[in-house]
Amino acid sequence: MEVLLDTASAVVATSLAAVAVGAAAYLSSRKRKHEDVQERSLPVARAVAGEEPKAKRARVTKQQVVPSEASIVDLLKQRAQNTPDKVVYVFLDDNGKESVVLTFADVDKAARRVAATLQQDAGLKKGDRVMLCYPPGLDFAMGFWGCLYAGAIGIPVYPPYPGTLAKDLPKFNRMVEDSGARVILTNRAYYMATQLATAKSYFSGSVSWPKDIQWFSTDAISNAMADRYEPTDCTFDDLAFFQYSSGSTSEPKAVMISHGNIHAQLKTWASIREDETMISWLPSYHDMGLVGFILVPIATGARCISMSPIAFIKDPSLWMRTASKYKGTHVCAPNFGYALAARKTTKAQVAKLDLSHLKQCICAAEPIRVESLEAFTEKFLPAGFNPKTFNCGYGLAEVTLVVTGQDPHKPQEPTVLAVKKSALEQKKSAIVAPKGHNSTDICTLVGCGIPMPTFRVIVVDPETHVQLRDNQVGEVWIQGPSVAKGYWKREEYTKEQFQATLKDAKQKRQSIGSSDKSHFLRSGDVSILDKSHWLRSGDMGFIRQGQTFITGRLKDLIIVRGRNICPQDVEQSVELAHEEVRPGCVAAFSIETSNQEEALVVVAELR
């Protein structure tokens, strides 16, 4: 019996285990030349300055006109009507072969099918919550769109691994309890594996799935259900989905994202064209994968070629091989993705690639290291990669996705800034290190670009709430139309984080971003918080010449003998100190000594 259960669980066990590896790395962290200073571009980029790509860019066609005030649901319905046979989603298997191909009409029909099931079989009404619990694949997207069509609030979650339910289920159950979800959507393979694993754990007295909750396998729903769908009217103020934060597992916090937030965020991606192709291996339950590669293709009409995070972790070369094969124009990954692709793709594989079609290589979601960008550039330069396509950005779930980045119409190499580490730690100031400065006192930072249109970014002293000047390090505060409504059932915490105010309301120092005039939104865009209210990001950084630089997390800051030490800086220094230190396997943290002083501890794994 035990062997039978283990075999059945293996239907998705391997996939989910590999996703855990990628997700752990993915979520482990929180993220003009002057003649005598060390502010530079990528060293290897100079070799291609002024060179033309080895192939012409993809032909640009006229962009389909869509209503500027249309919701994302309206956009999908319109595209399904106007261009029903145009392919929007393609999912590849672990060998890079197409396993699922969906047109706009396919997605619309699947959304109607799922929505009708939620409305009639599950008895859900507008605003009810639904857990989206899927292994990698496009079934997740169909479930998510079904929730939007039904007016339900989808909740993307990491799917508990059937083999370790005792470890994974407690957090999942807390999210179900916190959200009040009544339904779990999944697919047949995952449902079968979880039920068999649950039966096995039942006899051992382990933790169980939530009781009194309905399960639906969306890939088993009849096509006839699509005709029973009853359209639901949703306004921009209505909630679209929850994004649970990666904070404490004992107190999960759900960021409430509205339809208006989605609408405003998608406007920042308007430069993407219908004839362009996006390539992704990002998990759909994370905001970068969900917004960037499920919602954006519908909003822009672009095609998205996706693969499982498992496929990328098993064979990192598949990412750029896919970009070459499909003439990909847009890719996106956290820093570790670029580093892994550079390290694991062979020169022989690079020789067969053509990456000249790439227009944007977005890097965000974790601290960006210049070494990773340099390694990626050096490895893929022979394939026609242009380092000006790097778009280093900054974002967080509380603003739906992105806050800052490079202007896609003005591509440029990433800004790399070498500052005095001692000044960062002791003076909380970003002082550029002059040439010849002691290398042990240098911290290298990569700029995260400028605020997106209608966003405003300032840096504030986290204790006094006084706005700081350029090059002074403090907490990053944000205003913008895609800033979320707050945290679900966390009124006090919402007030603290989403409604922060400057100490001197009459401060005239200009924030970086949109002008006051452009900050006012047209009727129908989205209802925004009071202009005096700011979102506290919890991230530390500074602004220099209009560009945002992130130095670390406020809560991660380690204070030793008056020095403000950023653990990411220590981890990076240790990782680069010796080749035997395994990349991504260094942790720096603090402990309290017997003298009640804070001490720094570093743990590193060797190869």
General description of the model:
The protein has 607 residues and is α/β, with parallel strands linked by helices. The protein has a domain at 556-607: GMP Synthetase, Chain A, domain 3, CATH 3.30.300. Helix content is 31%, strand content 23%. The strands form 8 sheets. A 7-stranded mixed sheet has the order 3-2-11-10-12-13-14, sandwiched between helices. Helix 2 (72-82) packs across helix 3 (104-121). The longest helix has 26 residues, at 2-27. The two termini are 39 Å apart. The model is unreliable at 1-37, 44-62 and 515-529 (pLDDT under 50). This is Fatty-acid-CoA ligase. One of its GO terms (molecular function) is ligase activity.
Features:
607 residues; alpha/beta; GMP Synthetase, Chain A, domain 3; 7-stranded mixed sheet; 5-stranded antiparallel sheet; 17 helices; globular; disordered N terminus
Q: Any chance you could write out the topology, listing elements then pairs?
A:
Layout lengths: L1 H26 L11 E2 L31 H11 L4 E6 L5 E6 H18 L7 E4 L6 H12 L2 E4 L8 H15 L3 E4 L1 H16 L10 E4 L21 E6 L9 E5 H9 L9 E4 L6 H14 L2 E5 L1 H6 L2 H9 L4 E4 L1 H10 L2 H4 L9 E4 L6 H11 L9 E3 L1 E2 L6 E4 L10 E5 H6 L15 E5 L3 E2 L4 E5 L13 E6 L6 E2 L3 H8 L13 E2 L2 H4 L15 E10 L2 E7 L4 E3 L2 E3 L1 H11 L3 E12 L5 E9 L1
Helix pairs in contact: 1-6, 2-3, 3-4, 11-13
How is the biggest beta sheet arranged? 7 strands, mixed
Compute the separation of the termini in Å: 39 Å
* Overall geometry: globular
| Average residue-wise pLDDT | 85
Strand order of the largest sheet: 3-2-11-10-12-13-14
- The parts where pLDDT drops under 50 for at least 5 residues are 1-37, 44-62, 515-529
Radius of gyration of CA atoms, rounded to a whole number: 24 Å
Number of helices: 17
Q: Level of helix content?
A: 25-40%
Count of beta strands: 29
Structural class: alpha/beta
CATH superfamily of the domain at 556-607: ANL, C-terminal domain
CATH topology of the domain at 556-607: GMP Synthetase, Chain A, domain 3
Q: Please identify, by name, the CATH architecture of the domain at 556-607.
A: 2-Layer Sandwich
CATH class of the domain at 556-607 equals Alpha Beta
Instruction: Give the amount of beta strand, in percent.
Output: 15-25%
GO molecular function: ligase activity
InterPro entries: AMP-bd_C_sf, AMP-binding_CS, AMP-dep_synth/lig_dom, ANL_N_sf, FAAL/FAAC
Pfam families: AMP-binding
Protein name: Fatty-acid-CoA ligase
